[in-house]
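G., the chain you wanted modeled:
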Amino acid sequence: MEAQSMWERMLAGEPYVADDPDLARASARAHRLTHRLNTMDPTQHEAVRAVLVELLGAFGDGSEIRPPLHCDYGFRTTIGARTFVNWGFVLVDVARVRIGDDVQIGPGVQILTATHPLEPEPRRQKWEASQPVTIGDNVWLGGGVIVNPGVGIGADTVVGAGSVVTRDLPSGVVAVGSPARVIREL
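Predicted structure as tokens:
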């Protein structure tokens, strides 16, 4: 049996070495596209949208991302229809990121999928892993929210500004804090 490439390992959600040449090429593509996006005239809506369609795995009708945007790969992220993303969005999209329809994402939000070993030697050898993130329909992530690897946020949920989401949140709640805790149902 042939050994899996780091690319195949990453796509399968298995541990991989982060500085693999195939991964570096895919990341360089995303960096070129985000650089183009981040230096465009933001009033050129059709041109901005064309770059986002090329960069992302899917970009829904009526959605908008205000630059700057930073991501690892781009194609690992799908964004539904009518979603609005404010400035300074960071996507560490090593694993899949699925963002639903009608989502509101405040400025400076980070969605993180990469994980690192706790033991020092594997970290020194640049081993990583990842866990997917799912954001349901009609979610509002306030400014500066951080969503950690492996988290799912249910539909119609609001996450208060500056919160750190470390575990799944159900649908139809308000959650705040670090770590984010449900404070009320909607």
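The longest strand covers residues 181-185.

Shout if anything looks off.
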